[in-house]
Amino acid sequence: MINRNFTFKVKTVSFENDYPVKFPTAGDLMDIEIKKALLSGTVYSGIIAAGTQISEHVLDSIDMQATLEVLCPDLIKDLPTDIKSLRGLDIIDSNQLIIQYKKQMLPWQAGWMKTLSEVPKKKDVKEETEEKAE
Q1: pTM value?
Q2: Domain-by-domain residue ranges, the chain?
Q3: Contacts 24+ apart (CB under 8 A), 72-79
């Protein structure tokens, strides 16, 4: 069964709190993907291809930022006053947040992301339709 309720427990050098994370809507998923493209300057796939240690960290940061901005807006509101977005976190706080995101959020996401794999791909539907037509 999919757990629709989740609390993200954050503890960094600069701030600490527990945040309810909303269960995503279809629009939220689109917003997350759009934010990933915007945060990466539309070169997300190029960053993947780089395959360096820093590029992996950058991808983790992009994924974390896009997801938290959409699903956990209260965390963004609680950032220290001199920081306007997650991009403004220093690398120590950012790294701590990425670690917590990967340990807590990714397992939760994996549960509901599994349901997305149940939707047939366009090519599979097209092939099935063509087979029935023959």
Answers
A1: 0.82
A2: 6-133
A3: 72/8, 72/19, 72/20, 72/21, 72/22, 74/19, 74/20, 75/8, 75/10, 75/17, 75/19, 78/15, 78/17, 78/19, 79/14, 79/15
One-letter amino acid identity for 112? W
Which residues fall within 8 angstroms of residue 67, CB to CB, at 6 or more apart?
A: 32, 101, 105, 109
d(CA 114, CA 97): 24
pLDDT 10s digits, 31-72? 999 999 999 998 988 888 888 888 899 999 999 999 999 999
Transcribe 45-102 into DSSP letters: HHHHHH--HHHHHHHHHHHHHHHHHHH-HHHHHTS-TT--SGGGS-HHHHHHHHHHII
Contact call for residues 72 and 21 (beta carbons, < 8 A): yes
Token code pair at residue 19: 């945040």
